[in-house]
């Protein structure tokens, strides 16, 4: 009953109106920033360049890794699989396009977050859409709404969906992993392990999170990307047909065959863009909260660095996952779910494929839980003050365990609902302040041609 209700709400929120608003904002900001995507080379260089003496709590690289930790998660694996199952192979192209144009939106979000940030009573930077809405648009009520949606949404997209995903995969793979315990025991045991690990890092705040993410994120991304490339090289002869299928399905839909029920263009667009947002979070308003903590002397500088997050997350990682899943053909298997589809797609490399999938999911899940914990606590700080941060962290740690034993469909539908509600005030701020974004961009590049 709960699953059905959540599914209906998610379907309404992610109707054509929100998809048009989201993708339209990506296109509009691409134009307003003068096609900022063409500055990707500069942005990548800045992401590994330190700026000593600049104000902020963590390095630009640390802020980017914290944001990437939150964005590179189950959406890059399960989210892609779910999009293909519900929208057909064409959903992969729409996910990819959401990433390409979403770079401009992620850039714009971060620019505003750094421009309007301030130092709180603990001497730490505070910023994000809620601060932008209050300080730039004098709309504290909208900032409060965003903070409420974010603090609640964090428990879905950044917490329970993550712990649930890794538990589901371990249950599917328990024979290969040599586990003979009942599924319930596996869920409880792994849930407790994730809970303890989360508490050990997250209670130290942004500096602890950034240090850990700076170590784990580059490693996990390289490991997963390399694994996907090896899988694709093993089926290189299928790649042209796979790419052709993705493009044709994106604009013509996909007829039913095998166990696949078929999907039209609307389904490909809806699930591709929705899962694209779940993966890269461009337009969601979450990543700018981490960007606001960066040590940087100019909002545009950090905005460029933040934009690379969407490039790595969706343009690279999600695209590779989509190619692996579609090229396998397993998405047409009868009565298949996200976890089983990923299992079959990566199993073609035998034990090595299992290592890629399980290792990728485990590191993606844990890093995302850490990154989103920071987003949630900054939203609660905005709503209730600094004293509420520690209780929120403790509640966050407990929620990791709850997610491990909660039913998957309910978690994912809950995520879709909260994502949509978060996006609305943030997108409104981006559109209303697009003139500021354009002016700041022109100023910076006139000084740094």
UniProtKB/TrEMBL annotation:
Does the keyword section mention Metal-binding? no
Q: Where in the cell is it found?
A: Cell membrane
Keyword annotations:
Cell membrane, Membrane, Symport, Transmembrane, Transmembrane helix, Transport
A GO CC term assigned to this protein in UniProt: plasma membrane
Q: How does it sit in the membrane?
A: Multi-pass membrane protein
Q: Which GO terms describe its molecular function?
A: amino acid:sodium symporter activity
Database matches in Pfam families = Na_Ala_symp (PF01235)
Is Glycoprotein there in the keyword field?
Answer: no
Q: Which InterPro entries has this protein been placed in?
A: Na/Ala_symport (IPR001463)
Q: Write out the similarity annotation.
A: Belongs to the alanine or glycine:cation symporter (AGCS) (TC 2.A.25) family.
Question: Matching NCBIfam families, A to Z?
Answer: agcS
Return the protein name. Transporter
Organism, by scientific name, is Verrucomicrobia subdivision 6 bacterium BACL9 MAG-120507-bin52
């Amino acid at each position: 009953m709960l699953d059905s209700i959540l599914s209906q709400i998610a379907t309404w929120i992610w109707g054509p109106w929100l998809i048009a608003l989201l993708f339209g904002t990506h296109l509009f900001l691409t134009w307003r920033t003068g096609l900022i995507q063409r500055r990707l080379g500069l942005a990548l260089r800045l992401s590994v360049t330190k700026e000593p003496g600049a104000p902020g709590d963590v390095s630009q690289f640390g802020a980017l890794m914290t944001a990437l930790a939150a964005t590179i998660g189950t959406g890059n694996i399960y989210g892609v699989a779910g999009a293909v199952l519900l929208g057909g192979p064409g959903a992969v192209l729409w996910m990819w396009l959401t990433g390409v144009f979403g770079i401009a939106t992620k850039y714009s979000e971060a620019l505003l977050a750094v421009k309007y940030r301030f130092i709180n009573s603990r001497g730490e930077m505070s910023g994000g859409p809620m601060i932008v809405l209050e300080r730039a648009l004098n709309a504290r009520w909208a900032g409060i709404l965003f903070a409420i949606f974010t603090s609640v949404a964090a428990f879905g997209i950044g917490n329970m969906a993550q712990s649930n995903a890794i538990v589901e995969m371990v249950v599917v793979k328990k024979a290969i992993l040599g586990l003979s315990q009942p599924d319930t025991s596996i869920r409880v045991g792994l849930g407790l392990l994730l809970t303890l690990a989360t508490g050990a890092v997250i209670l130290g705040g942004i500096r602890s999170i950034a240090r850990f993410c700076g170590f784990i994120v580059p490693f996990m991304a390289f490991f997963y990307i390399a694994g996907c490339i090896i899988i694709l090289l093993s089926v290189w002869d299928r790649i042209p047909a796979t790419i052709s299928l993705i493009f044709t399905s994106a604009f013509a839909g996909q007829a039913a065959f095998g166990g696949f029920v078929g999907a039209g263009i609307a389904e490909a667009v809806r699930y591709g863009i929705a899962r694209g947002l779940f993966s890269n979070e461009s337009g969601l308003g979450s990543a700018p909260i981490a960007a606001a903590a960066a040590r940087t002397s100019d909002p545009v500088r950090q905005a460029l660095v933040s934009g690379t997050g969407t490039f790595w997350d969706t343009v690279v990682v999600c695209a590779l996952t989509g190619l692996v899943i579609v090229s396998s053909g397993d998405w047409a298997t009868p009565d298949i779910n996200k976890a089983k589809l990923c299992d079959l797609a990566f199993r073609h490399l035998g034990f090595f494929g299992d290592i890629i999938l399980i290792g990728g999911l485990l590191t993606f899940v844990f890093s995302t839980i850490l990154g989103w914990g920071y987003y949630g606590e900054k939203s609660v700080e905005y709503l209730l003050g600094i004293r509420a941060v520690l209780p929120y962290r403790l509640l966050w740690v407990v929620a990791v365990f709850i997610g491990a034993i909660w039913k998957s469909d309910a978690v994912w539908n809950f995520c879709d609902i909260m994502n949509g509600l978060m996006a609305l005030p943030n997108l409104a701020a981006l559109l209303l302040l697009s003139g500021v974004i354009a002016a700041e961009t022109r100023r910076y590049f006139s000084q740094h041609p």
